[in-house]
Design a protein that fits this description.
Length: 399
C-alpha cells in the first residue's frame, strides 16, 4: 500500500540543488509532524513498517497525534488509525504470549484511544477476546478500553451486539481459544469491571459452559434463586429441563444455595399430586419428568432423596463414620486396603479388642484424616471448592 503525504521539502530541495548546496533533507529531518490533511507523515509509515518503536516515541515526544491516521491506497484511499496500524504490524494475536506490543503501548501511553476499531462496530478488544490474547486485552483495558462496550457480533449480522464477556462465552472451547484461555480472558474482564447480569448467566447455561457459569455466579454474587421480571424460571429449573447434560451446572447452582424445592413447583402430571402429599419429600424424586437428561435427573433424584445438597455431599463421610462405629462394636469388618487402619476390627477377647483399637487411629486423628478425604461428589466439576469449605467446617466442629 502507498501512503500519501505532502512535504515542504520539494521546494527546498530544488533551491538547494540550484545553489549547489547539500542534498535535500528527508521529511523526518525537516521535522514534519503531519500532512496538510492532518494525517501521519510518510516517513513515519516506513518506520512503523520496520517496527521502529524508538522513532515512533521520538515523533510522539515532538507533539505527534497518537490518534491520527495513514491514508492507505491510491485509487480509493482509506484511513487507517495509527493504533490499528501499529497493532497490525505487531503480529496481532498469533504470538500474543511473546509479544510486548511496544508500538501500540507507546501510542496508548501518549493518549491513543484504547477502543480503536478493526472495522466499523468491531473493536480490537473483541478480536483479542475471540483469540484469547490476554496480553493484548490487559494492555487495552489498562489504558481505558471499555469492558462493557458493545461490538458487532459478526460481519453477517449487523443488528446483534455483544459485550466482551458475551464474546468470550461464544468462543469458549473453540479451536481458536481453549476453555482455559477463555477463563483467563473472563477473569481479566471481570477484574477491570465487566458487568455480570442474569441474562449472561442464562446464556452460559444455554451454551453449556459450566466453568464460565461457576465463575460468573461466584464473581457476581447473584442469588442463584433469582428470577427476572419477565417471568423467567429459576436457573436450576432452566438447567434441569435442558435436553443436554447440565449436571455440572446443576452442581454449581446447588453448591451456591439454589433451592431444590423449585423442581416441585413446575407443572407435573396431576396423577402424582396425591402421592407427593401422602409420602412426603422422600418421594419427590419420583415426580421428576422421565424425559429429562438421565445424568441430570439422577443427580437431582439423589439430592431430593438426601433432603438437601449438604446432606448429599456429607453422605459418604457419614457412611465411613457409621462403618467405623460398627467395626468397633464388632458388627462389621474393616475394608481391606489403605483404609484398613481407619477402622477397628472385631475380636472376641477384650484384650484383642484393646490391641486392635490401639493399632487403629484414635478418634481425633480419624477426623483429621477424614477432613482431607474427598468423595466423588466433591471433586471433578467446577466450583467444588465450595463443598471443600463446607465439609472442612463441618469436620472442624467434630475434631
Amino acid at each position: 500500500m502507498a501512503v500519501t503525504s505532502t512535504s515542504a521539502a520539494a521546494a527546498t530541495s530544488s533551491e538547494g540543488s540550484a545553489a549547489g548546496a547539500a542534498p535535500p533533507q528527508s521529511d523526518e529531518a525537516l521535522g514534519e509532524l503531519h500532512t496538510p490533511n492532518g494525517g501521519a507523515p510518510g516517513w513515519l509509515h516506513s518506520r512503523l513498517l520496520a517496527c521502529d518503536t524508538a522513532a515512533l516515541r521520538a515523533w510522539l515526544s515532538r507533539g505527534g497525534n497518537p490518534n491520527t491516521y495513514f491514508s492507505c491506497g491510491t485509487e480509493d484511499p482509506q484511513r487507517v488509525s495509527l493504533p490499528l496500524f501499529a497493532w497490525c504490524r505487531s503480529g496481532q494475536p498469533r504470538n500474543d504470549e511473546t509479544n510486548d506490543y511496544s508500538m501500540l503501548r507507546a501510542l496508548l501511553e501518549s493518549g491513543a484511544d484504547a477502543n480503536f476499531e478493526l472495522s466499523p462496530g468491531t473493536r480490537v478488544l473483541k478480536v483479542g477476546v475471540e483469540n484469547g490474547a490476554c496480553r493484548l486485552i490487559e494492555l487495552l483495558l489498562e489504558f481505558g478500553a471499555d469492558p462493557n462496550g458493545l461490538d458487532r457480533l459478526s460481519k453477517a449480522d449487523d443488528t446483534k451486539q455483544v459485550s466482551p464477556l458475551m464474546a468470550s462465552l461464544y468462543i469458549s472451547g473453540h479451536h481458536s481459544c481453549s476453555i482455559q484461555q477463555s477463563l483467563r480472558v473472563m477473569k481479566l474482564l471481570i477484574a477491570y469491571g465487566a458487568r455480570i447480569d442474569l441474562p449472561l448467566l442464562h446464556l452460559s447455561i444455554r451454551y453449556l459452559r459450566p466453568e464460565a457459569f461457576a465463575l460468573f455466579l461466584k464473581a457476581s454474587g447473584i442469588d442463584p434463586n433469582t428470577t427476572s421480571s419477565d417471568h423467567v424460571k429459576p436457573m436450576l429449573l432452566v438447567a434441569a429441563v435442558r435436553e443436554d447434560d447440565t449436571t455440572d451446572i446443576v452442581r454449581v447452582l446447588l453448591r451456591r444455595g439454589a433451592s431444590i424445592d423449585v423442581l416441585a413447583e413446575d407443572d407435573y402430571d396431576s396423577r402424582f399430586d396425591g402421592l407427593a402429599e401422602a409420602d412426603g419429600p422422600a418421594l419427590k424424586h419420583l415426580l421428576l419428568p422421565v424425559f429429562w437428561y438421565p445424568n441430570t435427573r439422577r443427580l437431582l433424584s439423589e439430592v431430593l432423596t438426601a433432603g438437601s445438597w449438604k446432606r448429599y455431599v456429607r453422605e459418604p463421610c457419614v457412611d465411613l463414620l457409621l462403618l467405623r462405629i460398627l467395626c468397633q462394636r464388632g458388627r462389621a469388618s474393616a475394608p481391606r486396603g489403605p483404609l484398613e487402619r481407619l477402622f477397628s476390627a472385631s475380636f472376641t477377647s477384650s484384650g484383642a479388642k484393646r490391641a486392635a483399637r490401639g493399632a487403629s487411629l484414635p478418634d481425633s486423628l480419624f477426623w483429621v484424616v477424614l477432613s482431607y478425604w474427598r468423595s466423588s461428589r466433591q471433586v471433578g466439576p467446577p466450583d467444588h471448592e465450595a463443598d471443600d469449605d463446607e465439609i472442612q467446617g463441618w469436620m472442624e466442629t467434630r475434631i
